[in-house]
Amino acid sequence: MSDTPVKILGLAGSYGLDSKNGLLLSIAMGYCQEHGAEIHIWDHVEKPLPLVGAEGCWDDKNVKELQKLVTECDGYILTSPEYHGTMSGVMKNTLDWIYKDHVGGKSFGLMSTLGGISNSNTLNHMRIAVRWIHGWCVPEQVAVGKVKEAFGDDNKLVDSVLQERVEQLSASVVKAARMLKEE
Ligand SMILES: Cc1cc2nc3c(=O)[nH]c(=O)nc-3n(C[C@H](O)[C@H](O)[C@H](O)COP(=O)(O)O)c2cc1C
């Protein structure tokens, strides 16, 4: 087995790493690091992506940087707010910039946040998009419902079972990234 750590990229479907998805992503990325991965997080505030098809989008430097980074990485954690029963436009547009040439055969972990009670809509819809870019989703997944009350002052999830599920998902993405890289 190679000694080089696998690289995991975190992509949130919200602007701002202090958003609820930003908080959830940083918990997961912390666990990925604990499990031996080198981590990267895309910040949409610092590096916004144009809408696919917008004027000048094909030469956009942030898009080129994203595509280079996703190509270099071995696994991905996606976390999106649920908007009108599906992933946010930010998450869909981010996925629309990523092709199978960048991420095909690599591992993905999926998480979502909801203002209301937890469900699997956004997770299922992201799983379909990931299938189209030939990613391999790990079976673990996390949906955080009632998200306004979900985080404590320490920025951890108040529900310790959910917090543990984020660790299990992160560990699974790192493990799958290693296994798929060895192929
Ligand atoms: C346009 C819009 C649509 C939303 N639709 C839903 C929804 O369908 N179901 C739900 O539970 N929450 C819904 N919400 C609440 C968001 O899911 C919630 O604000 C988000 O998960 C918080 O994460 P953030 O801080 O990362 O944006 C919606 C919010 C917005 C702004």
How would you summarize this macromolecular structure in one to three sentences?
The chain is of the alpha/beta class and 183 residues long. It has helices at 20-34, 61-72, 89-96, 100-103, 121-132, 160-182; strands spanning 7-12, 38-41, 75-83, 86-87, 107-113, 136-144.
What does this structure look like?
There is one protein chain. This protein is an alpha/beta fold and 183 residues long. It has one domain: Flavodoxin domain (Rossmann fold). Helices cover 40% and strands 20% of the residues. It contains six helices and six strands. Strands 1, 2, 3, 4, 5 and 6 form a six-stranded mixed beta sheet that branches. Helix 5 links the parallel strand 5 and strand 6. It is globular and about 40 Å long. The mean pLDDT is 97. Flavin mononucleotide (FMN) binds next to helix 1 and strand 3.
